[in-house]
Amino acid sequence: MDTFETVEVLLDVPLHGTFTYLAPHALPAGTRVQVDFRGRKQCGVLVDGVANPALDPAKIKPLAAIFDELPPLPAALLRLIDFVSAYYHYPKGAALFTALPTALRVAQAARLADRRAWALSAAGLADQPPARQRARLALWQALQDGPQTIHDLRAVSAQAPKVLGQWLEEGKAERAEPPSPELEVADGPPLNAEQQAALAAISDSFGRFQPWLLQGVTGSGKTEVYLHLIACALAAGRQVLVLVPEISLTPQLLQRFADRFPVTPIAALHSSLADGERLQGWVDAWQGRAGIVIGTRLSVFVPLPRLGLIVVDEEHDGSLKQQDGLRYHARDLAVWRAHDAAVPIVLGSATPSLETVANVEAGRYRRLLLTTRAHAAASLPQVRLVDTRLLRLNEGLSEPVLAALAKRLQKREMSLVFINRRGYSPVIACPQCGWTSGCKRCSSKLVLHLLQRVLRCHHCGWEEGVPRVCPDCGNVDIQPLGEGTQRLESAIQRLFPEARVLRIDRDSTRNKDAWDEVYRKVHAGEVDILIGTQMLAKGHDFGALSLVVVLGADGGLYSADFRAGERLFSLLMQVAGRAGRAEHRGEVLVQTQWPEHPLYLSLVAQDFDGFATRELAARREAHFPPAIFQALLRADAHEAHEAEAFLGQFKAEAAPWLGEVALFGPAPATMARLAGRERMQLVFECADRRALHRCLNQALPLLERLGRKAGRSLRWSLDVDPTEM
Amino acid sequence: MQNRLVLTATVEREDVLRYTPAGVPVLEMWLRHQSRQTEAGAERDVICEIQSVMVGEACRAWAGRVAGQELTVSGFLCQRSLRNPRLVLHIESAEFVKG
Fold this sequence. Notes:
The complex is a heterodimer of chains A (725) and B (99).
Chain A: E1 5-11, E2 19-23, E3 32-37, E4 40-47, E5 65-67, H1 75-87, H2 92-99, H3 102-105, E6 117-120, H4 122-126, H5 134-142, H6 150-156, H7 160-170, E7 173-176, H8 193-203, E8 210-216, H9 222-235, E9 239-243, H10 251-260, E10 266-269, H11 275-286, E11 292-295, E12 307-313, H12 330-341, E13 344-349, H13 354-361, E14 366-370, E15 382-387, H14 399-410, E16 414-419, E17 427-429, E18 447-449, E19 454-456, E20 463-465, E21 479-481, H15 485-495, E22 501-504, H16 514-523, E23 529-532, E24 545-551, H17 564-577, E25 587-592, H18 598-604, H19 608-622, E26 629-637, H20 640-654, E27 662-674, E28 677-686, H21 689-710, E29 715-720
Helix pairs in contact in A: 1-2, 8-9, 20-21
Chain B: E1 5-14, E2 18-19, E3 25-39, E4 42-55, H1 59-62, E5 70-79, E6 87-96
Parallel strand pairs in B: 4-6
Antiparallel strand pairs in B: 1-3, 1-5, 2-3, 3-4, 5-6
Organism (chain A): Craterilacuibacter sinensis
Family (chain A): Belongs to the helicase family. PriA subfamily.
Binding site for Zn(2+) 1 (chain A): 430, 433, 470, 473
């Protein structure tokens, strides 16, 4: 037994550090194992480390199992996790297990279908089956031409799996990696001068770290540039990682990649995959079999041994930031990975995040511009503001908007009415006593969903029936207040009875096949007016939209969040970009009560750079990111005073060593109450990122101590570079 | 607490039947009353208008039939809303005046 040696294991637990176990022989870092941890079977991963010398060797438990069906996890992944854990101040084990696909998080051997081809060994080649064994002979002959897949061999004989299994045992057959097919690239549309310049500049940086911002107006053909770059990387034998927001990872996009690279294995990783499929894609990428990985934020962790290029599309999109657990930003991690692997990274957007713009200004990133639409006939849409202060609204729609819709209907062109609020109306109210439908568990309103006759909280998911009478005063005539997609849909249908109206929001597309139906209808010309939320704004090309109407955008101007303006502007630019993508010149009408607001004036001018310059100056003046760096300490509990006491205590004890870091709060979060819990927060701010992280390193043990002391009701979390306050 | 109004009036305008979010039908109408009444021992002309509303299943039977008709209605009075103190007659029962 003295040949046992200790190993350090990372576990999926919210504790910092590693755990020591005994291994029967030396094992490489990255090996997946099963251990007994506090009486439960847990999956662990071996890492390099030194055992705590204070540990009593007699009490160290042996590893319960070693999983060797897959090679050890690669060093690059463990390096990334080291960085993630240090940067986001998150326990390393928990961070690693966030990065792994579900099938590798459990204490079980991963089950992967062996899709390798079959070939004859030298012994098998020499041993021709006799003619009377017809099936065997047919298989033997089929294998003379080189390795075959089981699928093809089954077509030769239904007995193929049985016979091959037997031959494998006898040493007559062997498994062979299928020869990787020659790269094939289908023809795409020709690139214009700007696209060519971008392609030349970026491909020139292959083989070294260089972040690029590819800033192209909507419809300028950014994806076409990516496809050409990917072709270059694949031709050089490298793998490509493409990160996209959840909402734009559509079958349409995947098809476009598959059409362009017909024989290249593509691993598409998104949340609706079954665990087995996700594992398969992950392992294909890790083993170098997949040439392209396209996925949502979680794919940033996928190991790629031959990584040659990273693309982050719509790099400004909020969905790239994880909002719970390990609160990482996939774009920022992608930049770190590009640096680690010494490869270029392309951040693409029509409206880049101000963080990225600031990085360009500081010379860390280089910017490439695409200023014209790729489709030669398409020009940028004309944006007009409709001042609703002076106009009577009919169901929330102004006269100019109704006239524009009627005109498109007459010309048989498709229009889009955008309102970023699903449901029938955002609240119901009693006009007699002033009661409104508040959520009992959150500081938000219950939204009326008229078709299902329910009130629903869009924050915590609470659902209840619509009350027959006002719960406060008994009045029957309670009324919906404000517009949502459902109300707009019925209003427009009433105002234009002959129009074919299609509503697209999270409720109408919940069904898996709903998108196929939407595309079929839109492309068959069976829709006159589309009504939808931001689902329509991002990533979907509906071809001949000639009019886009934006309703209810002003809400974004009133928000307390300093990023609200940036988000509103980029959303409106995206929505406006839906207009006039094909041969129609698009028109965009925005209903607003603030027609002289600078944000809207930049929108009319389609001037992102002007907006960004002004907004960045304002952020610098107000000491907001990206001019400074932030971290957010959130605490929630059943009672507000518990959360406040925890944060207050932390602030008091941290005061002596804060240095240049400023603490603001404790203050209630924007959503002060969510799902029955009171939320408070404390903001860390510092102009020096490293000083901020030194402070957080020091803060962590204190937080853990105070958290343990505070009792069960309290939960806390740390969010580095928060995007939602 | 007493709150009762009985009125014979002509329906000046009838709105389209609408429904509350819970699916209860609501019929709004404007009533115009004209009569002779005695005041301080002398007869005089009385003219008034009042907004009124019928709520509940019963109003389905009246919808689309009352515009221009003379009705005798009874119900209670309530202000229009929190911010608008104008009186609205909430009709509980109504019948056509046989003319």
